[in-house]
Amino acid sequence: MFEYLAAPDDTNSPMLRYVLLALSLIAALGSVIAQSKQGRLPDKVQAELLTNGFFPGDLQDLLETGRYTSGHNGVEHLFLRQRWQGIEIWNGDFAVHSASDGRILRM
Description:
The chain is α+β, with helices and mostly antiparallel strands and 107 residues long. It contains 2 helices and 4 strands.
């Protein structure tokens, strides 16, 4: 009455090998892409934040979420997010804007 489908005997088929290879590559690429860039504060910025009430632990695990330089004036914009034990902190974003000569313009 009921017929069951049996697994094919040929488990070394080329198609199966290609599918397994593709899945392995996708998994490997996914882990590489998921790695995040560790952010590093300039020393001047870190010193100013520490004098304004931040604790050293607050600045230990930062994630760089973006960085670019404005073409018309050379200002570098660095965007960071705080993390705690690898978990991103809600509303823990801040930006550092510095002139081409290294002066901190705004945080």
